[in-house]
Structures are given as structure tokens and as C-alpha cells.
Amino acid sequence: MDESSGVGVLDKAVAILTALEAGPATLASLVASTGLSRPTAHRLAVALERHRLVSRDGDGRFVLGPRCAELAAAAGEDRLIGVALPILAKLRDTTGESAQLYRRDGDARVCIAAAEIPFGLRNTVPVGARLPLTAGSAAQVLLAWEPAQRIQRFLVGAAFTAQTLARVRRQGWAASVAERQPGVASVSAPVRSASGRVLAAVSVSGPIERLTRNPGRLHAAAVLRAADAISRALRQEA
């Protein structure tokens, strides 16, 4: 099907953004994937960079810029929250622990939805709370699949290491024990777009007395099911 809008420069700019959805790209790879001439690809990529729709990574490659994330958040946040809330409630009821949904916002993570247990000792994270990307299982999930150059700057002073993030990528989930807050443990897993990009992190958290020092053994399977359910529901809505 012809997806051309009839506005040539717009179609070419969209072709560049679409190519960058797959990850960082050099000018040569942009030319190869879009079929644009080298001068045209360079001119449009630089113009998109001025509007923050395109940026550069540490190696000078083109990547999707911060404005894309801002627009995606504005367009998708209500839908993500609406899809996630009943699944978070089910996760809370299954595990008996508080459940949260985090999204990355610059150098922090923000709790955008939560389902709290109604009584007993619990870990309460208010919706809207901004937490660091240097501690906690949700932070590990939100960073683990980022390019190595972006990860590196967060590892200085972080409560986890590059080896920790490699393990998260292998097993598909993260756990933490007293990383961000003494006495609290958590387990998290990624919510993904249809292209595989990490959109958010689903977590359960609670006192170490209940989650133990091996919280993944107790709750990783349930958290993975919840994250997968949110990811599938988002794709179906789309």
C-alpha cells in the first residue's frame, strides 16, 4: 500500500524517523534504509535535530531525540495507564504486595500508576513520585536495554553494575534488595512496544521480611505475566 502523503519533504522526514526506530544509525545506514540521497538524508536529519526529533549518541550516530519521547508520552500516557490499572490490581492481589508502573523521564523514573495493598506493612510509592535511575529494580529494567554509551553515565554511583544489567537482559526481569530504600525489596519487568522498545517497568515492592532476599524467586513469574499482559493489551488497542 502506498503510504505517501503527497508532501515529499514530510514523507522523507518520516522515513528517517522510522529508520531510527530500529536504533542508532550512521548517515550511511540512513541512506541505505531510506533510499534517500546522502545530501538529502543529512539535510533532513540535521533539520530534525534542530527540532529535537533527532539527536546524536556518544559515537555521533543519529538516534530518536527527546521530543519523540515527549510526544509519545503525551499521546500514550492515558492509554498506558488505562490498560495497566486493572492488570496492576490483579498483580497486587496475586502477590499480596503493592504494584507500580514506572516510566523513564529524562534522568529519573516516574510512578505513573499504582495499586496499593489496603492494609499491613507496605511500600507506598505515590503516583507522580520521581525516583532515581541509579537504584531499584525498575531503574535496572528501564536502563538495561539502552545503548551501552547511555548506560555508562548512570553506573557512576549506582547501586548496581553493568554485570547486573547484563543479567537483567538475559533473564528478562530485575530484582533489588534494599537498593533504594532500606528494608524494601522489589521485582520489575519491562512493558514493550510492538517493535520491542521498553516503554515502562512493572514492579511489585514490599518489605524484605515478606519478599525475602530473593524476591525474584517469589514474584518474577507474576511480574513477567503482568508486563506481558500490558504489552499485549497496548498492541491490541493500537
TrEMBL record:
Pfam families: HTH_IclR, IclR_C. Keywords: DNA-binding, Transcription, Transcription regulation. SUPFAM superfamilies: GAF domain-like (SSF55781), Winged helix' DNA-binding domain (SSF46785). One of its GO terms (biological process) is negative regulation of DNA-templated transcription. The keyword Transcription applies. This is Transcriptional regulator, IclR family. Residues 67-236 form the IclR-ED domain. Residues 7-66 form the HTH iclR-type domain. GO terms for molecular function: DNA binding; DNA-binding transcription factor activity. It comes from Acidothermus cellulolyticus (strain ATCC 43068 / DSM 8971 / 11B).
